[in-house]
Amino acid sequence: MERRDFLKIFGAGAAATAVSACTGKVPQTGTQKREPGTMTYRKSALGDDVSLLGYGCMRWPTTVGPDGKQVIDQEQVNALVDYAIEHGVNYFDTAPVYGQGLSETVTGIALKRHPREKFLIATKLSNSREYDRESAMTMYRHSFEALQVDYIDFYLLHSVGGSRGEMDGMEVLRRRFFDNGMLDFLLREREAGRIRHLGFSFHGDQRVFDHLLQLHDEAEARGERKLWDFVQIQMNYVDWTHAKMMSSRNVNANYLYGELERRGISAVIMEPLLGGRLVNLPQHAADKLLARDPGASLASWAFRFCGTYPGVMCALSGMTYKEHLEDNLATFCPLEPLSLDDLALLEEIGDDYANHPIIPCNDCKYCVPCPYGVDIPGVFVHYNKCVNEGFIKEEKQDPEYRKARRAYLVSLDRSVAKLEQANHCIGCSQCVDLCPQNIRIPDQMRRIEAHTEQLLRDQKPL
Question: Which of 166, 170, 196, 234 is the most exposed place for a label (fewest CB within 10 A)?
Answer without folding.
Answer: 166
